Amino acid sequence: MLGEIALYTFVIIILTGVWLTLFFRPSMGEVVYDGSYVPLKGIPMSEAYASTLDISFDIRGGLLIRQIHHWSAIVFVAAMLTHMMRVFFTGAFRKPREINWVFGALLLFLGMFDGFMGYSLPDDLLSGTGIRFMEGAILAMPIVGTYLQFFFFGGQFPGVLIVPRLFTVHILLIPGIMVGLLAAHLILVFYHKHTQFAGPGRTNENVVGMPLLPVYTAKAGGFFFLVFGVISAMAAIATVNPIWAYGPYRPDQVSTDAQPDWYMGFSEGLVRVMPGWEISVWGGHTLNLGVFIPLIIFPTVLVGLWGYPFIEAWITGDRGEHHMADRPRNHPVRTAYGAAWMGLYLVLLAGGGNDLLATHFHLSINAITYFVRAGFFAVPIIIFVVTKRWCLGLQRRDKEKVLHGRETGVINRLHHGEYIEVHAPLPQGRLYTLTAHEQPEPVVLAPEVDENGVVRKAGLFTRARAKLSRGFYGEGSQIAKPTAEEHQEIASGHGHH
Predict the structure, then answer these.
(1) Can you tell me where the transmembrane regions are (predicted)?
(2) Which residue of 35, 228, 307, 464 sits 20 to 30 Å from the alpha carbon of 2, by its own alpha carbon?
(3) Residue 345 has pLDDT above 70, yes or no
């Protein structure tokens, strides 16, 4: 369902985007506004900004289409991220779906940047501030930063080429790549089929579900119009990016509460909370660490999640195909890692909106900044520990259910006065669901000296793999699921009243 929301919002983006290109003028040539919005009459501005105002106030239905386009982009990225987290927590990224995971990651990355370019096109004061932010990040690159800035902007900032160039990339280059990736993604989904949770009749060799035609197709068609209707209602009710409130962009001004769309908020947070460090290297060349370090951390945060499936496959050494989805509790370290990543993302998102948090909740902006700096290191660790213990507790609860059955709430008194609670045995289907998951064994290093006395020390990567394997699947990282013998002994009445 989450993947379908992403697909349908992408279709909505394409449809509304084609309509908007009929009226938008991607030019930074200066004009004097003479449209319907009276507060800006007589103000010099770019053609891009003036045409966006015309779409919003002078073209029938223009503002609604613009709002639908923008809200669809926001929901599109949110659906992709949520879809990827569902895939992550259920282990649906394992073989043979690793390539599809990479395709999804690329789609999310391209969607984020295409959204950034899209809301930068109107050339209003808010979007111009975002482009200025991008220019600062480019300039912070050592050695090549200045050259890249001149190449990208066609001269000094802001120049007259950035909006036309962003427009071309936004409507042609990135969407074209995304359409190709999306087609490949859907082909692989159709070929591999969907994963499924363990249950009666469900194995690693079959697929339980509805046929594509006519059942699923009919439901998918209805769901598309439902998504379109909800986004249209959001666009009609909630204003997003009111460019008329900001005014045209001027390099010497910046708007209050200048916030990017939520999916770029964590990159904004990285720069806002990073101390403004600078060092001089190579005979007086300044290295702006206050921007360069966040520029390095930005892709690292994303790759830290996107590269995890390959790390897990390397640790386990598992090369088999997996079509059964995991319950998150049965992989405590993986679940804790994903939850810690989400915690880090949210902390940085709060850092990107530190001014709004300060004004809305009457807090000190410095206190918020210091909290985010400390939280960048502390929050992921705390969430990791808590989530892991939570998963282990749920595993113990499942084991208790399998061995002793479910609590009925019925209390019996025995003839000698003792009170016991009656447990009802679980049905076979439920027992299968709770015990069908695999539990990888930790990697055990071979002796450094074999039976012939030959010394064969393990390499660095082998020792690292074994250590990580113990951390992922060793004692304290998973609760051994009950065996058939243990269940049989309990069911026969031995050792349990």
Answers:
(1) 6-24, 68-89, 101-121, 133-155, 167-191, 223-244, 291-315, 336-353, 365-387
(2) 307
(3) yes
Residue 45 pairs in a beta bridge with: 31
The pair of three-digit structure tokens given for residue 331, joined into one six-digit string: 């992989």
Report pLDDT for 493. Answer: 60
Residue 163 CA, distance from chain mean position: 28
Residue 48: closest CA among 125, 123, 142, 153: 123
Q: How far apart are CA 227 and CA 204, in angstroms?
A: 32
Neighbours of 346 (CB within 10 A): 16
Map residue 124 onto helix, strand or coil. strand
| 361-398 pLDDT per residue, tens | 999 999 999 999 999 999 999 999 999 999 999 999 99
| In contact, 91 and 325? CB cutoff 8 Å | yes
Tens of pLDDT along 76-127? Answer: 999 999 999 999 999 999 999 999 999 999 999 999 999 999 999 999 998 8
Calpha distance 213→207 (Å, rounded): 16
Nearest to 179 by CA among 7, 426, 428, 335: 7
Q: How far is CA 45 from the centre of its chain?
A: 37
Backbone angles phi, psi at 287, to 5 degrees: -110, 115
